[in-house]
Amino acid sequence: MTYRQRLSIIVVTVLAMLGLTAAGATAAPRNPAAEQTVPAIPITGSFTDATGGAGAFAGSFTPTRFSAQDGQLLASGTVTGTLTDASGETLGAVTRTATVPVAVAQATCRVLDLTLGPLHLDLLGLVVDLNQVHLTITAESAPGNLLGNLLCAITHLLDQNPGAGALAAILNALLALLNRS
């Protein structure tokens, strides 16, 4: 496997983890001669056509740049695809630049994982038997989850969390490596 192929796989994996893939989309057959250096992400959508029927959009998004704005990671790139009306007739092709927010998956942080073995207590005639106990506490970090956000921030206090700006810089570096001739 070449260096460029490995980088392509890494970028596709990172983009998939960031939620940029379209659900239920199928990939086109692989044609090495027509392969792009930066992988395109399949996208689909629907619209109401002129007759009031449900039209369809099928195309792809090819990222060209990542940026951060107000702490939000954004992907800029080119959207290409075709519009088809409810009767199946192609209405036209679209090629536009777009900037879209990148949805980073909801983070969960393990706060505590405690396992206590079986316990037998005899307290002046009061006998307490306790089988093995496994206590797991996780915090979910998301908008509106005040306590979850706080606990995740505390648990990762010493981690190096790059934030949206640093993540955009990393993704831009990967794109530059893929576009290198």
Helix content: 10-25%
The overall pLDDT, averaged over residues, is: 75
Distance between the termini: 17 Å
What kind of sheet is the major sheet? 4 strands, antiparallel
Could you characterize what this model shows?
The protein is of the alpha+beta class and 181 residues long. It is 23% helix and 43% strand. It is built from three helices and eight strands, in the order αββββββββαα. The strands form three sheets. It has a four-stranded antiparallel β-sheet. Strands 5-8 form a two-stranded antiparallel ribbon. A two-stranded antiparallel ribbon has the order 6-7. It is elongated, with a radius of gyration of 24 Å. The two termini are 17 Å apart.
Short structural summary:
The chain is of the alpha+beta class and 181 residues long. The protein contains three helices and eight strands.
Descriptors:
two-stranded antiparallel sheet; 181 residues
Task: Summarize the topology.
Layout: H1 3-17, E1 41-48, E2 54-69, E3 72-84, E4 90-101, E5 107-116, E6 119-123, E7 126-130, E8 133-141, H2 146-155, H3 163-179
